[in-house]
Task: inverse folding
């Protein structure tokens, strides 16, 4: 059974809209990101701030706004690719956002999809709407006119239209109150042209009956001279001084505001539908325009396909339109959606690169970038670099959540193309280092007398203490003395106190020092033995002597002992903690009993106790404790963290009133005990830094506690350090040195970017060269003609900088495109295994080239890397078809060409020559799109006919080698990628966003049964997967999910795919089904419909043996009572299910 969960959620922006969503507030921006609606608000500084996210069970394809009658707020209309539609908006009664209407097409599909994308247009009043989903069919809707239903949509009619291939649809600005709609369409699919036609939407004066949209109902109809026209811009009527005037003589009428602009590739056309007049203007520079936004009635921003932002200006003489003018104002990402936010702020939403926010200056006609919203969409290829393991091609890889596995993606298109490194966890940026300081036991930060910020670092060793002072300029000096502190012993605790005093606790004594005079005010020494554990706040010290005697000491009374408790032989103190925000209590962990106790500090009497021993481990001992307010106070009380000897961390919810413990959960951070360090935040809240094999930052986000991997290898101890020269920093000690660093406060996917300015189509990783091989192509416009240039280049694996010279494909073939790149280990001319890069290319369709006339459609190139780390050509083989994919089987090369899969032998005769000989071939059903090899089995993903397993049979008994089909999936699936995941199982993705796990049926009774692959799991991901990369992770025996692959999608999502252990399969299926009955999302769309398999042939009722990890994580956000209801009948209790979901979440 299969499991999938997002590592990096998709950030592609295809739709965005500005509207008034909340009462008495400014307009906000809603961005659609695949299956999420994000709400952003504009700050005075001109930047956008993310305020909320609404999850939708569907892939969003339509986003519009509607205006109910006499309402202060607007509604959002959302449509998905599964033909679910809903509106949501502000409920004034309950004071929250809620779904208002929800529609779903339950009829059997009998109409063809539109040849262009789904379209939706709303009239300027926000009351009428048309939706085009099917070829030749238009749905007409309007807001209800009845006051009690004014927030509801009314479906008026479904009308047949003759404009089949519609390029654009929009409403015009009218003064009569009768909506008018315009279509820009192509009359024939085989003849590129453009026609404009306008209709009145309704046939009666009350706007209750929809027009028939027949030829006699047309108001205007004309052919547009520019066949490439694809955009309509409705123009408003203008201000009071720009109002139009009526001329009865049509022959002398002049175009005025209130018409529409037809934007073509080479010219602009303004048409005034009232005066029936045109104003045309040629473009000085042709382009392909893709998005627009209105600045005011006479100025419009237009983005083109090349990432250029244009300003379209309507030249006016009063209300009369005299001309049109286009001006370049800057460069942006290739826009998918443009929204003008007011205050000269323009939002550029992009599917092809990062989304951006610009400040616009119309006086200078320029743009200034103020904010970037990162996106790694679309992912064309990905590869995995394990920073902790480099043992072979199919190496065992660290789990992604450990922060050691780095996913490198080829992202973006054309000038927005880049190489991205995706890594999990919290990043540390080193800002300073204290070298040659090893074996550090503890770190403490202090303030000197009258210092406003931290300026002193106490470094404790096994037998001594060293102190460093930091100047305001950043200079560091080690001092020989500091305010009477002891240097010749190990320091267990050092902290500032109120009243300009300092507390130092060593293994032999506790000192109270006056910082101003440097005089020791008071000393406390145990009667016998050594201090083994200590913790303190501003009022109390809690310590243990020899682990047997527990003592409480009052600081304000000059270190007077208040109470003691001799444990004798009954138990021993393992760890001690005094919470900073609760001075009246302490928490103590014990060795023998494996328990913790919450004590009253004055009497040392236990208030509450808890046994931490697990049934399967009697040696579990508490080794460190932290009690702090991690969650926001309005969401929960303090949380108690207990680090155990075996690497577990157990957490409890602590009552604010009586400090009772509840809600026990446990996680694993490693195999050795974690050291817990509090990091103070604002308003009495804290994060916790846990140091173990995998350092972890514990913090609160989205109302729950999150454990995030930290990129701090070999950290042994740390402390917070807010110095003037190093504000908001931390100091981390490793085995070899002490580093000053800044740390992110929240977990995120860390993305490192290498801008390339061209499309990275394929990525190959070389361990020996410690570099990535990139197949790139660039697009330039020269003399109004696109020129494509392909190249291969190397970049460093860590710093992402280009190495050596790039290898440019300049050959007699003419226009050549790199289609595939892999790294392979092949034998050189001396018989030694060496790394080579194999490159497959295709020839652009240019029949005039000599190569095309000779039948050459592509090549296979073998590249080596010279001493200067530049690629060079070893061998080239011309092909009769385009080489779409490459793979290696032992020492043989497998190439997928236009209609054939071919197996080649490789023989390198010298360092610059080699020969490839055809061994055998196999002809798939239509067109091979991807290859995956396991042993002597080749999985061939077919463009239309799913996948086939082909076995290589070596030559024997005088027979030639051959490729024999052994199994096939007989359904029609438009495959995009395939990957072997386990034994006889394979993972396949298709163009409709489905994932299928197919298994070879070796247990079949007949030969036909054995040749038919069976579906063991299937689900709709909602995003088209471009690449599936196999990964092998060394998991524990009792792991819930075994990771098997990473998936990269066109929307910029990176997903973890895994197989669920048999003992958890039934539990997780029942758990997901019960969650689906309980979880409500915006739009009220059923989870089963969203995740059900769907293509042109069939649609299932829900996901089949597939678990959605992101959906399971919503269990953690629910109220505890709801959690209890869900767990009824499952078997495990609420705590066990919370722990299970937390463990799944930590995988990614």
Result:
């Amino acid at each position: 059974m299969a499991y999938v969960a997002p590592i990096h959620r998709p950030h592609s922006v295809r739709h965005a809209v500005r509207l008034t969503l909340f009462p008495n507030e400014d307009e906000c921006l809603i961005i659609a990101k695949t299956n999420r609606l994000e709400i952003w608000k504009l700050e005075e500084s001109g930047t956008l701030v993310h305020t909320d996210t609404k999850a939708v069970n569907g892939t969003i394809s339509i986003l519009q706004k509607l205006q109910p009658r006499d309402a202060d707020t607007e509604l959002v209309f959302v449509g998905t690719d599964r033909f679910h539609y809903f509106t949501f908006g502000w409920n004034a009664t309950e004071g929250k956002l809620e779904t208002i209407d929800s529609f779903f097409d339950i009829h059997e599909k009998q109409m063809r999809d539109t040849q262009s994308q789904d379209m939706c247009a709303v009239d300027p009043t926000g009351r009428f709407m048309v939706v085009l989903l099917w070829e030749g069919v238009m749905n007409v809707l309007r807001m209800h006119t009845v006051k009690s239903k004014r927030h509801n949509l009314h479906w008026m009619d479904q009308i047949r239209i003759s404009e089949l291939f519609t390029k654009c649809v929009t409403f015009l600005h009218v003064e009569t109150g009768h909506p008018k709609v315009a279509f820009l369409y192509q009359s024939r699919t085989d003849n590129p042209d453009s026609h404009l036609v306008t209709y009145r939407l309704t046939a009666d004066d009350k706007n209750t009956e929809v027009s028939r949209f027949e030829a006699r109902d047309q108001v205007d109809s004309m052919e547009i001279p520019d066949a490439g026209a694809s955009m309509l811009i409705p123009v408003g009527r203008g201000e009071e001084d720009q109002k139009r005037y009526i001329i009865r003589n049509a022959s002398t009428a002049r175009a005025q505001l209130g018409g529409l602009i037809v934007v073509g590739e080479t010219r602009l056309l303004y048409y005034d539908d009232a005066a029936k007049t045109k104003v045309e203007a040629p473009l000085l520079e042709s382009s392909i325009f893709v998005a627009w936004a209105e600045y005011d009635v006479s100025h419009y921003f237009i983005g083109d396909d090349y990432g250029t932002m244009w300003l379209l200006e309507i030249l006016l003489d009063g209300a009369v339109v005299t001309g049109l003018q286009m001006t370049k104002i800057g460069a942006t990402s290739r826009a998918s959606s443009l929204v003008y936010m007011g205050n000269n702020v323009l939002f550029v939403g992009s599917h092809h690169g990062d989304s951006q926010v610009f400040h616009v200056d119309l006086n200078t006609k320029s743009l200034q970038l103020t904010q970037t919203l990162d996106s790694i969409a679309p992912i064309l290829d990905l590869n995995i670099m394990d920073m902790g393991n480099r043992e072979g091609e199919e190496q065992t890889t660290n789990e992604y959540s450990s922060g050691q596995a780095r996913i490198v993606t080829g992202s973006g298109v054309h000038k927005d193309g880049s190489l991205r490194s995706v890594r999990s966890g919290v990043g540390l940026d080193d800002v300073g280092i204290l070298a040659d300081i090893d074996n550090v036991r503890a770190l403490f930060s202090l303030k000197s007398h009258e210092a406003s910020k931290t300026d002193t670092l106490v470094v404790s060793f096994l037998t001594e203490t060293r102190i460093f002072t930091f100047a305001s300029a950043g200079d560091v000096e080690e001092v020989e003395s500091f305010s009477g502190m002891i240097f010749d012993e190990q320091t267990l605790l050092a902290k500032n106190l109120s009243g300009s005093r300092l507390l130092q606790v060593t293994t032999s004594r506790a000192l109270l020092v006056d910082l101003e005079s440097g005089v020791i005010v008071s000393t406390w020494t145990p009667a016998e033995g050594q201090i083994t554990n200590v913790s303190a706040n501003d009022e109390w010290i809690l310590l243990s002597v020899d682990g047997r005697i527990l003592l409480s000491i009052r600081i304000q009374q000059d270190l007077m002992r208040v109470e003691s408790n001799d444990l004798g032989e009954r138990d021993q103190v393992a760890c001690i903690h005094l919470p900073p925000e609760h001075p009246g209590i302490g928490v103590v962990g014990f060795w023998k009993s494996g328990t913790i106790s919450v004590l009253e500090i004055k009497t040392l009497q236990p208030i509450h106790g808890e046994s931490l021993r697990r049934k399967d481990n009697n040696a579990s001992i508490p080794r460190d404790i932290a009690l702090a307010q991690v969650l926001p106070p309005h969401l929960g009380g303090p949380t108690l963290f207990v680090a155990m000897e075996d690497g577990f961390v157990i957490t409890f919810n602590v009552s604010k009133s009586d400090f009772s413990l509840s809600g026990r959960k446990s996680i694993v951070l490693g195999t050795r005990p974690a050291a817990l360090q509090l990091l103070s935040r604002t308003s009495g809240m804290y994060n916790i830094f846990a140091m173990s094999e995998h350092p972890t930052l514990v913090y609160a986000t989205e109302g729950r506690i999150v454990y995030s991997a930290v990129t701090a290898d070999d950290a042994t101890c740390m402390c917070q350090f807010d110095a003037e020269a190093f504000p908001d920093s931390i100091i981390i000690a490793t085995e070899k040195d002490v580093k000053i660093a800044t740390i992110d406060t929240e977990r995120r996917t860390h993305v490192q970017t290498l801008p390339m300015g061209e499309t990275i189509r394929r990525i190959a990783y070389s361990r020996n060269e410690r570099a990535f091989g990139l197949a790139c192509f660039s697009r330039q416009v020269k003399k109004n003609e696109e020129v494509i240039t392909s190249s291969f280049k190397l970049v460093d694996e860590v710093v992402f900088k280009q190495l050596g010279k790039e290898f440019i494909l300049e050959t007699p073939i003419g226009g050549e495109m790199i289609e595939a790149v892999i790294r392979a280990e092949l034998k050189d001319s001396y018989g030694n295994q060496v790394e080579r890069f194999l490159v497959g290319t295709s020839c652009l369709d240019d029949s005039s080239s000599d190569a095309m006339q000779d039948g050459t459609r592509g090549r296979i190139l073998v590249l080596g890397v010279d001493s200067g780390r530049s690629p060079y050509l070893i061998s080239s083989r011309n092909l009769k078809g385009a080489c779409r994919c490459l793979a290696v089987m032992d020492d043989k090369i497998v190439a997928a060409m236009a209609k054939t899969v071919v197996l080649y032998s490789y023989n390198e005769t010298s360092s610059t020559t080699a020969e490839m000989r055809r061994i055998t071939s196999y002809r798939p059903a239509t067109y091979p799109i991807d290859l995956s090899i396991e042993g002597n089995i080749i999985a061939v993903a077919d463009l239309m006919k799913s996948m086939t397993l082909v076995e290589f049979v070596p030559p024997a008994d005088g027979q030639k080698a051959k490729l024999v089909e052994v199994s096939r999936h007989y359904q029609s699936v438009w495959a995009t990628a395939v990957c072997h995941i386990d034994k006889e199982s394979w993972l396949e993705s298709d163009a409709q966003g489905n994932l299928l796990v197919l298994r070879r049926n070796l247990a079949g009774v007949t030969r036909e049964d054995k040749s038919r692959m069976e579906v063991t799991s299937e689900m709709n991901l909602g995003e088209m997967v471009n690449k599936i990369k196999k990964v092998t992770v060394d998991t524990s025996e009792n792991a819930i999910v075994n990771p098997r692959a990473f998936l990269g999608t066109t929307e910029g999502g990176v997903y973890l795919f895994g197989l669920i252990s048999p003992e958890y399969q039934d539990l997780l299926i029942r758990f997901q089904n019960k969650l689906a009955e309980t979880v409500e999302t915006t739009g009220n769309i059923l989870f089963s419909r969203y995740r059900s398999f769907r293509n042109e042939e069939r649609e299932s009722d829900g996901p089949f043996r597939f678990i959605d990890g992101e959906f399971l994580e919503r269990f953690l956000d629910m109220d505890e009572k709801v959690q209890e209801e869900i767990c009824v009948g499952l078997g495990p209790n609420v705590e066990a299910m919370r722990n299970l979901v937390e463990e799944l979440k930590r995988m990614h």
